[in-house]
Amino acid sequence: MTTTADYTEKIPNNVNLHEDRRLQRALESWQPNFLNWWQTMGPTLPTRDVYLRTAINVGRDGWAQFGHVAMPEYRWGIFLAERDPGRKVGFGEHKGEPVWDKVPGEYRAELQRLIVIQGDTEPASVEQQRNLGATAPSLYDLRNLFQVNVEEGRHLWAMVYLLHAYFGREGREEAEELLHRNSGSLDSPRILGAFNEETPDWLSFYMFTYFTDRDGKYQLGTLKESAFDPLSRTCEFMLKEEAHHMMVGTTGVDRVVQRTVEVMREHDTGDVAGLGAIPLPVIQKYLNFHYSVSLDLFGGDTSTNVANYYTAGLKGRWLEDRRKDDHKLTSDAIMVDALSEDANGELSIGQTEVSALVGLNTDLRREYTSDCQGGVKRWNRILEEGGVSGRLKLPHAAFNRKVGAFAAIEATPDGEKIPAEEWQRRQGEWLPTEVDKTYVRSLMQPVHQRGKIAAWIAPPRNGINGQPFDYDYVHLA
Ligand SMILES: [Fe+2]
Ligand SMILES: [Fe+2]
What we know:
Blueprint (H helix, E strand, L loop, with lengths): L20 H21 L5 E9 L8 E6 L38 H21 L10 H28 L1 H13 L21 H22 L5 H39 L12 H17 L7 H9 L20 E9 L5 E9 L4 H26 L24 E2 L5 E2 L1 H7 L7 H10 L30 E3 L1
Antiparallel strand pairs: 1-2, 1-7, 3-4, 5-6
Bound molecules: fe (ii) ion (2 copies).
The site of one fe (ii) ion (FE2) has 5 residues, from α3.
């Protein structure tokens, strides 16, 4: 049984926070720092209220309520999915044992690290997106931006709850650090590269929510398998919210492609720059950038740390229980990306066999890639139905990598290895140039009138929570 959170409490929650006064006080003293961070690093566009979804429960029917909320009064709660009392560890050397309600001493440092890395991404994306409200293409999109932002804020709360509740003084210090690091900061940047990149325009925002939030979905999916049950239950609930972020990205790119097709047909040209739409080659370049930096988030192609996390039961595989193997992988193998060297010392793109445990990052990254193909397929269907011959595609895994085996070389989106000098000369063919970015930015004129939309994007097929597109999703200040 779960109960609906009590929203008269300072920190709404379903974890019986009032029964642990020490923990409650610690979180209540972190709360003003969080609100201060939200004020200084969160959304910059002043609003009176926004039509937002707020989590209130974790049950099967109705876990959220919708209503117009003044942003500073939004309530960030702590929610863990329902406990399964019979849950057993699903993989690794503890497979079949009961899951853990406390942090085992020998895995303390590793678990804390995993939680901090996940926690660091949540506020980072809010920081990256903070100025987008000023150029929103419609009130519907503006509302979705704020929805994503408040939920990333809640995901930070989710990780901070774990740090405070299970990791003592060190956990509390890490919770403070999560507010001190900032996206793009020179002195104390966010931990992972993609979270220090800018999100300066709405095409970037849709690509980010499609490709980078989707990395988050896969990381949460592995942590949901964890033998540390509070982490598992936290991530399970976060995944529910994350689905909306994916939808914003998927349909956002849909609508950009749709509009480009319309303008191409109307003017019978592919050269739609200057006609107020985003040319297909520019969409492809943004896709290339966001996909390749998101691949880097999966870490090295091989990792003994991740092998150890798996064996210890800290972090599983995507959909662990659907895998048809022994869930220990001690005698399995996997092919991973690698560079091979010929007799002349010439490097080439290839693969090598490693133990399945050591190749777990590759396993997760491949699951992610096949999921990403789904988006490309639907965008290409829009092109096809519009009678346009161009197609989008995911670049090769070797393209524009800063992490993993392919970081050492340069390659085209087709996976052809090229000399560094050629990369320097030609990268503007594949990644957004200053000219591309300036053009996209020039389109980013705000449309804040009810029912209206910018000319570079098609309206959505559906509104939010059954409301029409022209609903008053946001009241500006
Ligand atoms: Fe998140
Ligand atoms: Fe997200």
